[in-house]
Write a structure and sequence with these properties.
six-stranded antiparallel sheet; alpha+beta; binds dodecyl-COA; 6 strands; about 20% helix; single chain; about 30% strand; hydrolase; membrane
């Protein structure tokens, strides 16, 4: 099992000088993203906000379409919310990164209609690897932890998407100036 703890020699994650100020809503990186896109009717519609350093917060309301057991959130959906929240740390570092490995602890059940208060931070960087952690609390940002996760993101170039994504969506994304602008916001040293 490969560790999700930054190895000895890992650097602290750097907040990019042009990162949005703490409190700023980060917006969606892609309109059709299941995690954050407004164009996905059954998506999670997460809205993530920049925090201090390399950290973010988000709120996720569990809806009936997110059920696993009767009246309770599906664990995979909660993991997706954590994944998306940690993934959005790239906005603050100006890097494009994808999830390589993710481990979730489900601490307590999360009923439908719950607002999950999510927070995530980068815990270290080693080469292309970005180590992150996140948690989701219920009843407020100081409430009890319901889920927590650690994940390893790997920095990739934009070709990761253009070479591997289905052509139809890639062409549409590249023809959308808004999408191109958002992609640039992730790039290192634009
Ligand atoms: C437009 C805006 C877009 C913005 C896009 C934002 C999207 C956010 C969406 C939410 C996040 C997602 O769900 S993303 C979607 C889910 N994830 C994916 O589809 C990724 C699929 N996997 C891959 O494409 C690949 O395996 C990669 C890119 C992750 C790694 O391949 P690679 O580039 O060839 O790199 P590789 O040399 O293998 O690995 C580099 C280093 O990472 C380590 N490493 C690699 N994989 C793992 C792993 N699973 N667990 C541990 N460690 C790993 C290696 O040991 C190595 O360490 P060392 O030798 O250097 O020490």
């Amino acid at each position: 099992m490969r560790s999700l703890t930054p190895p000895p020699g890992a650097a602290a994650a750097d907040r990019h000088p042009d990162a949005p100020a703490p409190g700023t809503l980060l917006g969606s990186h892609y309109r059709h993203c299941f995690g954050c896109g407004s164009g996905q009717p059954h998506g999670l519609h997460l809205e993530t906000r920049a925090g201090e350093g390399v950290s973010v917060t988000a709120e996720f309301t569990v809806r009936p379409v997110h059920q696993g057991a009767p009246g309770l959130a599906h664990g995979g959906v909660l993991t997706t919310a954590l994944d998306e929240t940690m993934g959005s740390l790239g906005w603050l570092m100006h890097v494009i990164a994808v999830t390589g490995r993710l481990e979730t602890d489900f601490v307590r059940p999360v009923p439908v209609d719950t607002v999950l208060h999510l927070s995530a931070r980068a815990t270290g960087v080693h080469g292309r690897k970005i180590f992150t952690s996140a948690e989701g609390r219920i009843g407020g940002s100081g409430g009890p932890v319901a889920v927590r996760a650690e994940a390893l993101f790997i920095q990739v170039k934009v070709e990761h998407f253009t070479d591997n994504g289905r052509d139809e969506e890639i062409q549409a994304a590249m023809a959308d100036p808004d999408q191109v602008r958002r992609a640039r916001a992730f790039e290192v040293n634009p």
